[in-house]
């Protein structure tokens, strides 16, 4: 499970959390004496998506409450199933809130993949598009291809096309020009971690898109479950940003396009400042600026628990 998360066989913040939860359950069945080591190993896979820590902390609390039970593995598996089921339900709820933001005929841009293949199912940003379509809205969706891993070109386009939605792929560098040429009603992306002030880490390139949206007066929304919010991070500066192998940039498909001797910098995520974000779409509704007020209210109501990351 740890290797699958590291090499991005499983990717997307909520999906990483679900995979880690099942990884912990598998360890409990196969090597119960090494469960602590397994949890530790899973926590070191990818640093930015807070779901990983959120899911592992749920697994850890089941472990702590049931240390001496002989059906511990079963209890951990049950918790992983619960995390999986909850994620689909939450995505449907947040998507229903999000679709209210879109007009009947909407042109939208998204970045990376925040769909069924990034979650347990249905998706967050793509869930909003699915819910809009289910409500009879007509969408024209532009998917940034999302260099260097092409999650938009490969995964988002696949998901939307297979759902019969109208999807067009663009290179990341085309989004600003597209906004200047055609009416775009909204930009909606997912998130890997949201700080208390609303600053949001998401796939590299999201920040560029948010700046372009601001310049062209297009509202930029984040769609993310409350489990994406890390109240231990006061601002985006506190969010750890993963840097991945330069080869992801150097090599496209089977072709090495940038030679070894040329340095490459490959941060996997960027942070969009909260002032560029028009709203954060969650399962309890759409949060507005100043985000810390809404976020504190939600986590102080006794019904939702904030879980900090690493
Ligand atoms: O590196 P990835 O593919 O795991 O990055 C995924 C993203 O940035 C998604 O937008 C984010 O995890 C939200 S998925 C609902």
Describe the protein's architecture and organization.
The protein has a 7-stranded mixed sheet. Strands 8-5-6-11 form a 4-stranded mixed sheet, covered by helices on one side. A two-stranded antiparallel ribbon has the order 9-10. The two termini are 19 Å apart. The protein is built from 11 helices and 13 strands. The longest helix has 28 residues, at 72-99. The model has no long low-confidence stretch (mean pLDDT 97). Helix 2 (13-30) runs parallel beside helix 4, helix 2 runs antiparallel to helix 5 and helix 4 (51-65) packs antiparallel against helix 5 (72-99). With 310 residues, the protein is α/β, with parallel strands linked by helices. 5-S-methyl-1-O-phosphono-5-thio-D-ribulose is lined by residues 11-14, 49, 112, 114, 118-119, 124, 151, 189-192, 202-203, 268. The site of 5-S-methyl-1-O-phosphono-5-thio-D-ribulose has 18 residues, from helix 2 and strand 6.
């Amino acid at each position: 499970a740890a290797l699958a998360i590291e090499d991005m066989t499983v990717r997307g913040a909520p999906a990483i959390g679900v995979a880690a939860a099942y990884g912990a359950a598998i360890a409990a069945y196969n090597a119960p004496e090494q469960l602590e080591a397994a949890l530790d190993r899973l926590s070191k896979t990818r640093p930015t998506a807070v779901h990983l820590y959120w899911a592992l902390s749920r697994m850890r609390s089941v472990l702590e409450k049931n240390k001496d039970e002989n059906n511990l593995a079963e209890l951990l598996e049950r918790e992983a199933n619960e995390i999986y089921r909850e994620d689909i339900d939450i995505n449907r709820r947040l998507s229903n809130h999000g679709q209210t933001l879109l007009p009947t005929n909407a042109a939208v841009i998204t970045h990376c993949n925040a769909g069924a293949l990034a979650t347990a199912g249905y998706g967050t940003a793509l869930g909003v598009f699915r819910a809009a379509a289910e409500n009879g809205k007509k969408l024209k969706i532009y998917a940034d291809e999302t260099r260097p891993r092409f999650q938009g070109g490969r995964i988002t386009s696949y998901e939307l096309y297979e759902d019969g939605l109208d999807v067009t792929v663009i290179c990341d560098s085309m989004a600003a020009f597209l906004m200047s040429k055609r009416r775009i009603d909204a930009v909606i992306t997912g998130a890997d971690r949201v700080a208390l002030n609303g600053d949001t880490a998401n796939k590299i390139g999201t920040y560029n898109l948010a700046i372009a949206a601001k310049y062209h007066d297009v509202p930029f929304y984040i769609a993310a479950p409350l489990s994406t919010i890390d109240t231990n991070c006061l601002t985006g500066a506190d969010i750890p940003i993963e840097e991945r192998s330069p080869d992801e940039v150097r090599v496209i498909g089977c072709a090495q396009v940038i030679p070894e001797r040329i340095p490459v910098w490959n941060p996997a995520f960027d942070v969009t400042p909260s002032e560029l974000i028009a709203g954060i779409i969650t399962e309890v509704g759409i949060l507005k600026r100043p985000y810390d007020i809404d976020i504190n209210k939600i986590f102080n109501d006794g019904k939702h628990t904030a879980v900090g990351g690493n």
